[in-house]
Amino acid sequence: MDTPAPIPDPARPVARLLNLLQLEEVETDLFRGQSTDEGWIRVYGGQVVAQALMAASLTVETANGQQRLCHSLHSYFIRPGDPKLPIVYKVERDRDGASFSTRRVVAIQKGRPIFNMAASFHLPEQGLEHAVTAPADVPHPETLESDSDWARRNAPHAPEPWRTIWLSRERPLDLRAVESDDFFNPQKRAPQQRHWVRLASALTAEQAADPVLQRCLFAYASDMTLLDTCLAPHGISWANPALQSASLDHAIWFNDTPDMNQWHLFDQDSPMSGGGRGINRATVHDIGGRPIACLMQEGLIRYRP
Questions:
Q1: Per the omega criterion (within 30 degrees of 0), is the bond before 258 cis?
Q2: Three-class DSSP category at 119
Q3: Alpha carbons 3 and 181: distance in angstroms, whole number
Q4: Cβ of 248: how many Cβ atoms within 10 Å?
Q5: Which structural domain range is residue 251 located in?
Q6: Any idea what DSSP says for residue 66?
Q7: How many angstroms from the chain centroid is the CA of residue 185?
Q8: How far apart are CA 178 and CA 196, in angstroms?
Q9: Per residue in 124-178, pLDDT tens?
Q10: Does 106 fall in a domain?
Q11: Is residue 257 situated within a structural domain?
């Protein structure tokens, strides 16, 4: 009889994630972030986006008690990052206007850029409002199996290296898929998928009240499932050795500050793929149905049977 996998303490990976966002200021507008070697072949893209956003945010000053928050960011992944090495983030202060600030960030390892990002920050103000409604046919997240529980349940029957990865990797996110697939033999389906996401362990009241931290945590989560969407109509899994995939670029538009203690629905689709690349996009709603952010990503999906 298989021995059940131990249930990990979700506070540990969340604490590690929070530590990743504690950047060291090496010099003016120059920051160093650590990586975590949790079995990743390369640095997870969401980590670099989150750390770059934190670096940029640290250079945007609060004036008259008002804080400029990131409303959009656009980034490119240039080279794979080494998870065993720290990453240096160089920030350029392009402009501080009356209501907007613009920053450019380059992430560097071994003297070479691995990632760059442009981000814009905006003073809060009132304006015209409209929004799409959240999907009405989505099960409540508490009725769905978590990604961690799914991994522990399936690990004893999975081949290596997946068995070790699923048993050993502690996840800072509680991720619950609405549509379930056979990981090793997925069937072709429409290029759409939905996931509920929140932190695996709650932030303190002080942490939860920090809008910069909340947006950086959301940025970390935003790269977790997008690229899967353009694989769905082709019936291809990450486990397929013929697949070479990677995030190429990544964009976020914030409509409001997320509360990562609470559930967020990532409503994702892929309008097209071709030429070895796939386009993925998402509208993200909070548990009450409010649109919090929009995402867009192009990914490499080379398939060589």
A1: no
A2: strand
A3: 25
A4: 18
A5: 11-124+141-303
A6: B
A7: 25
A8: 8
A9: 999 999 999 999 999 999 999 998 888 888 788 777 777 777 777 789 999 999 9
A10: yes
A11: yes
Query: 53: domain CATH number?
Result: 2.40.160.210
* Count of domains forming the chain: 1
Q: Is residue 130 part of a domain?
A: no
Instruction: Measure the CA angle with vertex 303, ends 76 and 284; round to 5°.
Output: 45
DSSP letters along 1-64, please?
-PPPPPPP-THHHHHHHHHHT--EEEETTEEEE----SS-SS--HHHHHHHHHHHHHTTS--BT
Which of left, alpha, beta for 289 (phi over 0: left; psi -120 to 50: alpha)?
left
Amino acid at 130: H
Active-site positions? 223, 247, 297
Number of Cβ atoms within 10 Å of the Cβ of 109: 19
Terminal C-alpha separation, the chain: 37
- Low-confidence stretches of the chain (pLDDT < 50) are 1
212: helix, strand or coil: helix
In a domain? residue 6: no
Class of residue 135 by CB neighbours under 10 A (exposed 0-12, middle 13-18, buried 19+): middle
Beta strands 173-177 and 100-109: pairing type?
Answer: unpaired
